[in-house]
Amino acid sequence: MPELKPDDFVRISTLFVPEVVTSLAISPKGDFVAIAAGDKVHIHGIPAMFRGDSTAATPQEFPRLVTLYMPDKVQAIVFSPDGKLLTAAISNKVHIYRVPD
User: Fold this and answer.
1) Residue 69: predicted pLDDT
2) What is the DSSP string of 27-79?
3) How far apart are the C-alpha atoms of 82 and 22, rounded to whole Å?
4) So what's the pLDDT on residue 75?
5) pTM of the prediction?
6) How many structural domains comprise the chain?
7) Distance in angstroms (rounded) separating the CA atoms of residues 79 and 31
8) 1-31 in b/e burial notation, b at 16+ Cβ within 10 A?
9) How far is it, in rounded angstroms, from Cα 36 to Cα 74?
10) Range(s) of the domain holding residue 39
11) pLDDT tens digits for 50-95?
């Protein structure tokens, strides 16, 4: 395993959400990041340049694509291993969403 230093990590974006983040997940293909905050799940697109080994010299925008509104505070979110489903844990329920292609 290589020795890592703090300078080896390069910030590629900063995403702002209006509430405290309780959970986040990156889709298996690396095309979406889902951010749970309060009673919402914000889905942002990840630019193609960050999927794989390429790097960018400056931070980039990860555009917000959609916000899913939940009936209560979201405790956790996770994508399925194949990236076709997104689950959200809310109170004593789990909501399951199909992710569009």
Assistant:
1) 96
2) -TTSSEEEEEETTEEEEEEPPGGGSSS---SS-----EEEEEE-SS-EEEEEE
3) 23
4) 96
5) 0.84
6) 1
7) 12
8) eeeeeeeeeeeeeeeebeeeebbbbebeeee
9) 6
10) 6-98
11) 665 555 555 577 889 999 999 999 999 999 999 999 999 999 999 9
Question: What CATH number does residue 14 fall under?
Answer: 2.20.25
Which residues, 6+ apart, have CB-to-CB distance to 2 below 8 Å?
none
In angstroms, the Cα distances linking 55 to 34, 44, 47, 50 are 21, 19, 11, 6
Compute the distance between CA of residue 68 and CA of residue 99 in angstroms, rounded to an integer. 12
Residue 62 lies in a domain: yes
The residues with which 64 forms a beta bridge, in sequence order, are: 44
Asked whether 88 and 74 are in contact (CB, 8 A), the reply is yes
Q: Is 1 a domain residue?
A: no
What pLDDT score was predicted for residue 53? 54
For residue 25, being part of any structural domain is answered with yes
